[in-house]
Design brief:
Elements lengths: L7 E6 L13 H20 L3 E11 L8 E11 L3 E10 L2 E12 L18 H16 L17 E7 L13 H19 L11 E12 L8 E11 L3 E10 L3 E13 L16 H22 L1
Antiparallel strand pairs: 1-3, 2-5, 2-7, 3-4, 4-5, 6-8, 7-10, 8-9, 9-10
C-alpha cells in the first residue's frame, strides 16, 4: 500500500462548548481531533478495529479559536506485525498548529492483537524520509515498563476523578473512545494546574492555563463498557511559566491502563505567558519525581536538537 493511500483528512469546526472563557479550543478537544483521525488512518490500513497503544511527541505550536476550521491529517508511515506508526498534524488554513505521532494496534473482537499484513511504499524522496523517520522512531522508542503503582500518591498537589464508562464514552458500545479519555485526562490536569495558580473562578481578568505538550504516553490494556476508571493527576514540576502534571488511569480499582505527562503554560487574559507561583519539592516523593522530570525534559530538548 502506498503511503499516500493511507492518508485521512477530517474537518473540525471549533464550537462554543469546546472553548475556554477566552474563546480558545481546549487542548483535550484538539487531542480528540488528532487521535480519532489517526484511528481512521490505521483502520484504513488494517481494515479492522484499531486502538491506540501510545501517543508521542504531541506539541501544540499555536492555539485555535472559536469558529476556526481545523483540518487534521493522519497517515500510516510504517507497519510492523500488529502495530502501525501514525503521524498526525492539525492545520488552521495553511498553518500547522499541532503535531503528534502515535502507535495503533489492530485487534479482533476479543481485543487480541492481529497481524496487519501490509507494507507501506513510497512514491518520492519526501515519503521515503517519512518512512525512515517512522522506522527510527520505532527503533528508538523506549517501551515503558508497566508500573502498577499510582506515582501521584504522596504529592501535595493532587486530584482524582472517578468515571463510569457508559455507551456514550465508547466508539462502538464495547471499547472507550481514546479521544474522550484523553479529553478527560487533559481536563483533570488542567483543573489541577488552575488550582495551583490560585484560580477562583471566571472573570474577564482571570489567568488560565493552556496545554502545550504531552509525552511518555502508553496504553497497557483497553477500557471497556461498564468499567469504572479512576483518573489521578499530580504536580511533578514547575518552571518559570509552565508546569508538568503526571496523569494516570486505573480501571476497576486495581489495574493501571495508561499514564502520561501533560505540560501546561499559565497565560493572562490576553493569552500572554505569565510566571507560575513559586514551588519547592518538600517530601522525598516530590524530590524524586522532580529529578525525574528534569531528566525527562533534558532528554526531550536533546532529541529536538538532533
Amino acid at each position: 500500500m502506498k503511503l499516500s493511500d493511507t492518508k485521512v483528512r477530517t474537518q473540525n469546526i471549533v464550537h462554543y462548548e469546546q472553548t475556554n472563557f477566552m474563546g480558545r479550543l481546549h487542548g483535550g478537544d484538539m487531542l480528540k481531533f488528532l487521535v480519532d483521525t489517526g484511528m481512521l488512518s490505521a483502520i484504513k490500513v488494517a481494515r479492522a478495529t484499531s486502538v491506540i497503544a501510545s501517543l508521542d511527541n504531541v506539541v501544540f505550536k499555536k492555539g485555535a479559536n472559536l469558529g476556526d476550521i481545523i483540518e487534521v491529517e493522519a497517515y500510516v508511515a510504517y507497519v510492523g506485525n500488529t502495530s502501525m506508526e501514525v503521524e498526525m498534524s492539525a492545520y488552521r488554513g495553511d498553518e500547522k498548529i499541532v503535531t503528534a505521532t502515535g502507535v495503533y494496534v489492530k485487534i479482533d473482537e476479543n481485543f487480541r492483537p492481529q497481524k496487519v499484513g501490509e507494507i507501506i511504499e513510497c512514491d518520492n524522496e519526501e515519503e521515503k524520509a517519512i518512512i525512515e523517520r517512522a522506522k527510527k522512531r520505532r527503533q528508538n522508542r523506549i517501551r515503558s515498563i508497566k508500573n502498577n503503582e499510582d506515582q501521584t500518591k504522596g504529592l501535595r498537589f493532587r486530584i482524582t476523578n472517578g468515571v463510569y464508562i457508559s455507551p456514550d464514552l465508547t466508539y462502538d458500545g464495547k471499547i472507550i473512545s481514546a479521544g474522550k479519555l484523553l479529553k478527560m485526562m487533559d481536563d483533570l490536569g488542567g483543573s489541577l494546574a488552575l488550582k495551583f495558580i490560585g484560580y477562583k473562578g471566571y472573570d474577564k481578568y482571570s489567568d488560565t492555563v493552556v496545554t502545550v505538550a504531552i509525552s511518555n504516553m502508553s496504553f497497557y490494556s483497553p477500557i471497556k463498557l461498564g468499567d469504572i476508571i479512576e483518573i489521578n493527576a499530580g504536580l511533578t514540576y514547575v518552571g518559570r511559566t509552565s508546569l508538568d502534571v503526571l496523569i494516570n488511569v486505573f480501571k476497576n480499582g486495581k489495574e493501571k491502563v495508561t499514564e502520561a505527562y501533560f505540560s501546561y503554560v499559565r497565560v493572562d487574559n490576553e493569552g500572554k505567558p505569565k510566571e507560575m507561583p513559586r514551588y519547592y519539592p518538600e517530601t522525598e516523593v516530590e524530590k524524586n519525581i522532580w529529578q525525574e522530570a528534569i531528566k525527562r525534559r533534558n532528554l526531550q530538548i536533546k532529541e529536538k536538537n538532533l
